[in-house]
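Researcher: Quick test of sequence recovery. Tokens follow.
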């Protein structure tokens, strides 16, 4: 019989019932985290049942070799009335953060002219050794381009988040992108061309021959009314989708390799993303500005 470690490495991590039936294969920490997740699902169904993928996400997190402190925070969210605040992964903390952001930014709506902008790229980055192509140059390019647009008065302000879309686990490939709400009197073709040119220039300079230069992809939509504004604010704050690419791969992939890829993703996300601001704002959408806002910064 194969040792427990080998059998554990091949388990389907998104199936909590399977993990429960195979607790003897799990490490003591994994058993403890699984118990905490099951308790939360039973005790707080409204908090953790609103996202149909939460249980699967929890399985991927608790079985990973991700930092033990963050795994413990995530799997014990709301136990003893403490939230994990890992809203990039936790659906309940994302929901709470959405409400905070809507409350803070909704007073700005009558005072500005808003656009929902996706700053993305075409293709993907290999997010694993030996490739380890970093998303940071692309996020930095978006940040610098938006600041440049503010400096020359092309926009009045911006609020944005940096995200990773998981294209696949085998190979481990991700797409860095940003979603932004921009305050601007208008966003005509010349502004789009300027933003596109700045992104291409900055991303090329940031990559600087060391990695893959992805083609830029811009999408701009006007925010039509207050409810649309609320929906866009909520869309900024959502957990990363760890589950879809895993579900697509689980039936055909080598499960040991697939689970190793999940570990690589989580550890890479920790390395590249956790030291960066989770929500960024400039100009009129800086909540410290008195023109639009009440309250403290988000």
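Model:
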């Amino acid at each position: 019989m194969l040792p427990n470690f080998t059998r554990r490495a091949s388990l389907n991590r998104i199936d909590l019932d399977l993990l429960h039936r195979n607790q003897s294969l799990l490490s003591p920490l994994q058993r403890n985290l699984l118990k905490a997740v099951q308790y939360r699902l039973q005790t707080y169904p409204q908090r953790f049942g609103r996202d149909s993928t939460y249980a699967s996400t929890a399985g991927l997190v608790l079985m990973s070799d991700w930092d033990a402190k963050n795994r413990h925070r995530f799997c014990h969210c709301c136990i003893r009335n403490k939230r994990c605040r890992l809203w990039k992964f936790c659906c309940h903390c994302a929901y709470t953060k959405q409400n905070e952001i809507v409350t803070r930014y909704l007073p700005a709506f009558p005072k500005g002219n808003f656009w929902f902008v996706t700053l993305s790229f075409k293709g993907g980055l290999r997010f694993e050794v030996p490739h380890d192509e970093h998303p940071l140059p692309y996020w930095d390019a978006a940040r610098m381009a938006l600041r440049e647009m503010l400096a020359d008065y092309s926009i009045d302000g911006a609020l944005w988040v940096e995200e990773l879309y998981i294209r696949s686990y085998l190979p481990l490939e991700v797409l860095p992108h940003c979603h932004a709400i921009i305050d601007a009197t208008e966003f005509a073709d010349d502004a789009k061309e300027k933003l596109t040119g700045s992104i291409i220039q900055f991303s090329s300079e940031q990559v600087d021959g060391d990695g893959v230069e992805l083609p830029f992809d811009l999408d701009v939509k006007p925010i039509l009314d207050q409810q649309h504004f609320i929906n866009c604010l909520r869309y900024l704050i959502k957990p990363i989708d760890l589950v879809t690419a895993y579900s697509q791969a689980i039936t055909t992939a080598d499960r040991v390799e697939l689970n190793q890829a999940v570990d690589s993703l989580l550890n890479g996300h920790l390395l590249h993303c956790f030291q960066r601001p989770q929500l960024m704002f400039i100009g009129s959408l800086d909540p410290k500005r008195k023109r639009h806002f009440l309250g403290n910064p988000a």
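The first helix runs from residue 4 to 9.
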